[in-house]
Fold Serine-threonine/tyrosine-protein kinase catalytic domain-containing protein.
Amino acid sequence: MLEWAWQLHEEGRLLELADPEMGEFPEEEVLRYMKVAFFCTQAAANRRPKMSQVLDMLSRNIRLNEKQLTAPGFFNSSGSLSGPSGKKSFSETTTSRMSSVPDTITQVTPR
């Protein structure tokens, strides 16, 4: 979905991502939320905003610097992070392999 959203953004058709069943909605606000999501999914971790910055971007009417927005990172079928061109965004010296530790779920039960 992220890849599709980025493609729509590049084509200037980002609002097509919104569910047509919603009817009317504040278009500028929805576009802003989608762009904030792009900032949060940048391929390079140092380009992603801190949660306090995300909160400010969503709750206050501050100007987003969209010129700093680059393509988000995507996971390919091998589990490594890549950009929209399919090239790995990690250097060859950095391990891009995902953890081999299986996912676990912790269930909290009351005393």
User: Anything to note?
Assistant: The helical segments are 2-10, 27-40, 51-59.
